[in-house]
Amino acid sequence: MKKVLFLLSSTLFFSNLFGQVEKDSAIIEFIKTKKDFVLLTDTNFLPQTIIPYYESVANYMSKNKMNMNDYYVWTSYIKNQATSICIPICHYEGFKLLKDLKNKDEEANKNRKKNDPLIITDINGNVSGIDGDLEIDKKTKKVMRFSLWQ
């Protein structure tokens, strides 16, 4: 009985620690339509400016229990400065929320009357509650901070 409890508790612990969010193919397609988001673990499509700092990002995220498979780099807003690089990352959960809002808007617009205004809902900022910027020192290649957006 103790072995079963140990195995069960170990499985739950490691699934929470290393588990990633289950992803829906419709959400993945929605993210692809955005065109300027790249999965953080998709090194073939990440901008070359990020590649030298990839190991530092991976280490930082691992230490802070942030699953890299759940984050997307917002490539249009990478700030490559003289001494640092700032990498904006967005969590999958935020895209789920945006997709849900888009679906609700489409449904509401199907039922609107001829002269009623078009319904468009959008959220700017930290949609998932865990989106933000990774700021990396170029000289040391260390993540200096992860700043959550408002």
What features would you describe in this structure?
With 150 residues, this protein is α+β, with helices and mostly antiparallel strands. The protein has one domain. It is 37% helix and 20% strand. It has helices at residues 2-18, 25-34, 54-63, 92-110, and strands at 37-39, 71-74, 79-80, 84-91, 132-137, 142-148. Strands 1, 2, 3, 4, 5 and 6 form a 6-stranded antiparallel β-sheet that branches. A hairpin with a 4-residue loop joins strand 5 (132-137) and strand 6. Mean pLDDT is 86; it is low at 1-18.
Helix percent reads 25-40%
Average predicted local confidence, pLDDT = 86
* Helix-strand sequence: HHEHEEEHEE
Taken from the alpha-carbon principal axes, the silhouette is elongated
Q: Give the termini separation.
A: 48 Å
Cα-based radius of gyration, to the nearest Å:
19 Å
> What composes the largest sheet?
6 strands, antiparallel
Domain module tally: 1
Counting DSSP H or I runs of 4 or more residues, the number of helices is 4
How many E strands?
Answer: 6
List low-confidence stretches. 1-18
- Beta-strand residue percentage: 15-25%
Q: Helices and strands: which structural class?
A: alpha+beta
